[in-house]
UniProtKB/TrEMBL annotation:
Signal peptide per UniProt: none
Sequence ranges assigned to domain Glycoside hydrolase family 3 C-terminal in this UniProt record: 442-654
Domain of life, per lineage: Bacteria
Domain Glycoside hydrolase family 3 N-terminal: 78-401
Keywords: Hydrolase
Occurrences of domain ExoP galactose-binding-like (ranges): 689-844
Name under which the protein is recorded: Exo 1,3/1,4-beta-D-glucan glucohydrolase
Source species: Steroidobacter gossypii
Length: 855
């Protein structure tokens, strides 16, 4: 037996040998990414920094900066220093707070915006940026003027702003295989950001998603680290400009953030904020190359990931943040945390986390928790729990970035060119680049009998709910966090896919008709069906299998209907990831993976239609950035038992003449895990859940088919119709005694991260008879563990017979005693009184704006 220490040393030695071999075989890579040969370093942490690449930083002239840093650091009070390392959300902070606390930064989260209005016009953003800046520069109280930085998720263009140019999400950009284009996209995004006064973007996401069940897979360029590395380099240069040039980080450039360090895309089962159960070598080889490239391109900020590695949260990981990223790779910018992610570090809460700073985090993203966090952090510095040297290092890094970006001399955001040039938002020139990106991102998966390209002189029917649907073609992180709750009218400068087809066909002498449900009076020459995933982002996008819309065949039926009418069908599939669509592939003559193209739907018609003379206008260029699954259970290309249906890199062109054989439509049984975000949908309990009823203290009985009654008929459940046949339930409490309706599961689920993500228990309800007594909505967490909230007041206010939506934030249940790490029943409804209530679609959903508050 060898002991643990000897084993660790042995492992280190083996790894070093392997790496030396790997790196010497790879000297070309070093030139392009700035990697140099490893040398041995010793460390007390559980990483082996010596096996990680060293990065050569770009040459920056910091000679004037470093003395200023020393001077500033020696003059700032400890209160001012602590202020610098805290970032608050514009929804929870005012300019006055910034003046008083000297906060280093503000951000707007996906669901927050100036004045609380997601749809606020560009000029309101600029005015808010000026106000925060002026507050930060105010010296009337004797404090030092330190310009604030405003960070925003400009992840596919300046996507929080109405009228901005919206590029395809990263998955589509990965398909273009055009790194040079990334640079132009970065430059345009930076320019549009500067127009509204923000100087910092939380982009690029350089995740290398390994399991596309992850709801953020579309933020990943590819499953392939080499492609991600190339793109990371190029987009950082586009956003920040060339290091060493006078307009680096200023003018039409912004500060970029490489996120989320490290292995956000490598978590077990693709769980958002989950755990990467991989070796240190896999961590390095799969997930780190993008960071090496971003750092060598001069990226100034790295965002620590919500996720963990081998069970330890990265936000508190000294080995990865300090020993590897800062010491080994030499990163000299700063590390920002993710949205209250520090609260998930062992021993921490949202309002206190010395462990994260001590591990190497430099700035807390503390959206709503900033004030208490400020007080606690200050106390921890004063007590020595956070060493002053560590605080000084964090502040030095933040100020270094501010100085490099010239913020001290820049004046207020509206005075910095191109601040206030609103015409640049969605300008024709910018949109043309986005349209090119759309064209190049399209991947042709099937083209039987060479149905494509189409002649623009044809009679074209355009169907499907994605055809004229700008929210859907943009996906998540568009005006709102999940990309939900918005309509076509919120995209004044965008073009839908249908609108693009209509103008191509009109110019070519044909006709294009929009018919979402596919009905027509005159038989068309061809039908184009645009369909796919509905918008989602973090958490909500996580799925259990890759089957496209399980249990909902409406898109398939649409395709089949045209087939039956002998009309050739072209499928245009909108999605954030490859999904199992064998039935849809079988039912279509041609099939195009169009990803989430953004504002320029016209790019699709550019490729589908020929020129007037019948010659190809634009050929397909896109190649799959992820392998396409052969079965719904094939989550990634590595280690899968079968070969993918289409390999990473696959994509037909108009030169190809292959027909796709008929594919298997068999759906294998899904692994038994419970659906974490849906509990009751389409008239049945979701995967892993059952509907149960119980009277008094008696054990609850599960109802097969989700209809039946509790003992003594004190609670009866029957099927009713809401949007579709029997998709809802009517629950009738007789008033003869207490009774409970539950959605319960066998294995507990963990909803901690969902609570942190501000999700709410959400359902549709209809009052048929109002409550006569107290009604409690609860969450159960094993025997004897519950959190319950009274809801009768709200139910009493609802008009009878009308469907409405109910929302209750998850954290409210936590306040009432629910242990969200161990949820056995996410939905319990109890009363001893009389109540008749229709219930449908029980789930978790984002958006606290319209949810009630709880203490
Ligand atoms: C996301 C980050 C994002 C941040 C600010 C987090 O929940 O994980 O990618 O930058 O919120 O909106
Ligand atoms: C915010 C997002 C953030 C998320 C974190 C949302 O309410 O708008 O920006 O990423 O919460 O979980």
């Amino acid at each position: 037996m060898i002991d643990a220490r000897a084993r660790a040393e042995l492992r280190g030695a083996i790894v070093t040998t392997l790496l030396t071999v790997a790196l010497t075989g790879c000297s070309k890579k070093e030139e392009t990414t700035g990697e140099t040969q490893p040398s041995r370093i010793t460390t007390a942490s559980n990483v082996h920094p010596e096996i990680w690449p060293q990065v050569s930083l770009p040459a920056l002239d910091d000679t004037a900066i470093e003395p200023r840093l020393n001077e500033l650091l020696s003059s700032l009070s400890v209160e001012e220093k602590v202020g610098q390392i805290i970032q608050a959300d514009v929804g929870s902070v005012t300019a006055e707070d910034v003046r008083r606390y000297r906060l280093g930064s503000v951000l707007n989260g996906g669901n927050s915006a100036p004045g609380g209005d997601d749809l606020a016009p560009a000029r309101v953003w600029l005015a808010a940026a000026d106000a925060f800046y002026e507050a930060s520069m105010d010296t009337s109280d004797g404090k030092h003027a330190i310009p604030i930085m405003w960070g925003v998720d400009a992840v596919h263009g300046h996507n929080n702003i109405i009228g901005a140019t919206l590029f395809p999400h990263n998955v589509g950009l990965g398909a273009t295989r055009n790194a040079e284009l990334m640079r132009r996209i970065g430059a345009i995004t930076a320019t549009e950001l500067r127009v509204t006064g923000q100087e910092w973007t939380f982009a690029p996401t350089i995740a290398v998603a390994q399991d596309v069940r992850w709801g953020r897979a579309y933020e990943s360029y590819s499953e392939n680290p080499t492609l991600v590395r190339e793109y990371a380099h190029s987009i950082v240069l586009g956003l920040q400009g060339d290091p060493g040039k006078p307009d680096f980080l200023r003018g039409n450039h912004v500060i970029a953030t490489a996120k989320h360090f490290l292995a956000d895309g490598g978590t077990f089962e693709g769980r958002d904020q989950g755990d990467a159960r991989i070796t240190e070598e896999q961590l390095r080889d799969l997930h780190a190359p993008g960071y090496v490239a971003a750092i060598s391109a001069g990226v100034q900020v790295v965002m620590a990931s919500f996720s963990s590695w081998q069970g330890k949260k990265i936000t508190g990981h000294h080995g990865l943040l300090t020993d590897v990223l800062k010491n080994r790779m030499g990163f000299d910018g700063f590390v920002v945390g993710d949205w209250n992610a520090h609260g998930q570090v062992e021993g921490c809460s949202n309002v206190s986390c010395p462990a994260a700073i001590n591990a190497g985090l430099d700035m807390f993203m503390a959206p709503d928790s900033w004030k208490e966090l400020y007080d606690n952090t200050l106390a921890q510095v004063k007590s020595g729990e956070i060493p002053m040297a560590r605080l000084d290092d964090a502040v030095r890094r933040i100020l270094r970035v501010k100085l490099r970006a010239g913020l001290f001399e820049a004046g207020k955001p509206s005075s910095r060119a191109p601040g206030g040039k609103f015409d640049l938002l969605g300008s024709a020139e910018h949109r043309a680049v986005a349209r090119q990106a759309v064209r190049e991102s399209l991947v042709l998966l099937k083209n039987d009998n060479k149905v494509l390209p189409l002649k623009p002189s044809m009679k074209v029917l355009v169907a499907g709910d994605g055809a004229d649907n700008l929210p859907k073609q943009n996906g998540g992180w568009t005006l709102t966090w999940q990309g939900t709750g918005i309509e076509n009218k919120h995209f004044p400068k965008a073009e839908s896919i249908f609108a693009g087809i209509r103008s191509a066909v009109k110019a070519g002498g044909g006709t294009a008709t929009l018919s979402v449900d596919g009905k027509y009076t005159r038989k068309p020459d061809v039908a184009i069906v645009v369909f796919g995933e509905d918008p989602y982002a973090e958490f909500q996008g996580d799925i259990a299998t890759l089957e496209y819309k399980p249990g909902n065949e409406s898109d398939l039926e649409l395709l089949k209907k045209f087939r039956a009418d002998q009309i050739p069908v072209v499928a245009v599939f909108l999605s954030g990831r490859p999904l199992w669509v064998n039935p849809e592939l079988n039912a279509a003559d041609a099939f195009v993976a169009a990803w989430l193209p953004g504002s320029e739907g016209g790019g699709i018609a550019d490729v589908l239609f020929t020129k007037r003379d019948g010659s190809v206008n634009h050929d397909f260029k896109g190649k799959l950035p992820f392998a396409w699954p052969r079965t719904p259970l094939m989550f990634n290309s590595e280690g899968a038992p079968e070969t993918p249906l289409f390999d990473n890199g696959f994509g037909l062109t108009y030169q190809d003449t292959v027909d796709l054989p008929v594919l298997s439509e068999e759906v294998p049984a899904a692994p038994g895990q419970a659906s974490t975000h849906h509990y009751f949908a389409a008239g049945r309990p979701s995967n892993g859940w059952q509907l149960a009823v119980g009277a008094g203290d008696a054990a609850r009985t599960a109802l097969p088919g989700a209809v039946g009654s509790a003992q003594g008929d004190v609670l009866q459940i029957s099927a009713i119709d809401r949007a579709a046949q029997e998709d809802a339930r009517l629950a009738k409490w007789s008033g003869a005694g207490p009774a409970t309706l539950a959605l319960q599961g066998e294995a507990p689920i963990d909803l901690q991260r969902e609570a942190n993500g501000q999700l709410s228990v959400t359902f549709e309800y209809r009052i048929d008879a109002p409550p006569s007594a107290k009604v409690m909505l609860g969450i159960e967490c094993g025997p004897g563990c519950r959190g319950d909230l009274p809801i009768e007041a709200q139910l009493k206010q609802a008009p009878a017979g009308e469907w409405r939506q109910f929302k209750m934030p998850l954290h409210c249940f936590q306040n009432k005693g629910a242990d969200l790490r161990n949820v056995t029943a996410p939905f319990l409804l109890s009363t001893a009184g009389k109540l008749e209530l229709g219930i449908a679609n029980v789930r978790l959903e984002s958006g606290l704006n319209d949810a009630p508050r709880c203490e």
